[in-house]
């Protein structure tokens, strides 16, 4: 409230954006498009294959990272995940309500396909 008694909108609190925040947005966009079950795991596998040309276990083993802890990966790998998940989340957010299928498997497959396609684009655009 200002001195004259009028309400003023408060500016939103700001937070540092990190990989966990980007990943939550990515996963929320998957859910908002009807993704369920193994789609989260399958999306992580697909983007890892496209970004790094290896599987998830190999990425952690070869970089000395601790499994399921992206913060233990080298900075370029963390950045690649963040960039890709941010771009993919944006694309998924645009598509809410348009990804359909006969059953959950078809919906999940469409989402994973989009994740794979966006990861291919990310890898092409950036030097990882």
Task: Work out the helix count.
Answer: 5
Could you state the order of secondary-structure elements as H and E?
HHHHH
- Summed up, the domain count is 1
The proportion of strand residues reads under 5%
Describe the structure in your own words:
With 128 residues, this protein is mainly alpha-helical. Helix content is 62%, strand content 0%. The protein has helices at residues 19-32, 39-52, 56-63, 75-95, 104-125. The protein is globular. The relative contact order is 0.18. The mean pLDDT is 90.
Brief summary of the model shown:
By secondary structure, this protein is an all-alpha fold.
Give structural attributes.
5 helices; mainly alpha; 128 residues
Describe the protein's topology.
Layout: H1 19-32, H2 39-52, H3 56-63, H4 75-95, H5 104-125
